[in-house]
Design brief:
single chain, mainly beta, Jelly Rolls, five-stranded antiparallel beta sheet, 2 helices, elongated
Length: about 170
């Protein structure tokens, strides 16, 4: 985009531009800039949108306190951009659960929470989902971490991903 000429005075800046470029001089903003400004747009996510798909896992029928792996795993020859990973549970009569979604990165034997915990008792529903998109490498696994559970409410998991070959 073309900016103001060398003798034009600026009266309005986009929000955050002065701070991002460090243009303050003794507390005041500059009155002139170079003849042209060039903006950049991050386009990675726009390309990744082309091949987005949903993967649903088999239900975790009897979750236990601790880490529970669902049937979603990154194959050895792939790298996934995970747009969202979510889990849902609707406890029946007498059941309850407190859980968050979690992932084991690149064949790690530890699960790492990627969402806040959510809880539900009988006749309630709980939905938990990853806070932000993330990359999952070959061997990465998905599941839930359960803080407490009563009886055996089923948990359903699904993910929106873009597959990339390694």
């Amino acid at each position: 985009m073309t900016g103001p000429g060398p003798t034009d005075n600026l009266t309005k800046f986009p929000k955050g531009l002065i701070s991002a470029l460090g243009l303050r001089d003794f507390g005041s903003a500059p009155h002139t800039l170079a003849n042209s400004l060039i903006g950049t747009i991050e386009s990675l996510q726009l390309y990744l949108l082309n091949d987005r798909e949903q993967i649903s896992a088999n239900a975790i029928a009897a979750p236990v306190v601790g880490s529970n792996v669902c049937s979603i795993a990154v194959p050895p020859s792939e790298l996934w951009y995970v747009w969202n990973f979510a889990a849902a549970c609707d406890p029946g009569a007498g059941a309850a659960i407190d859980m968050c979604v979690a992932t084991g990165y690149d064949v790690s034997n530890q699960f790492f929470p990627i969402s806040p915990y959510g809880a539900a008792a009988a006749t309630q529903a709980v939905r938990v989902a990853s806070i932000a998109p993330f990359w999952a490498g070959p061997g990465g696994v998905f599941g839930v971490h359960v803080r407490s559970v009563t009886l055996a409410p089923a948990i359903n998991c699904n993910a929106f991903i873009t597959r990339l070959r390694t």
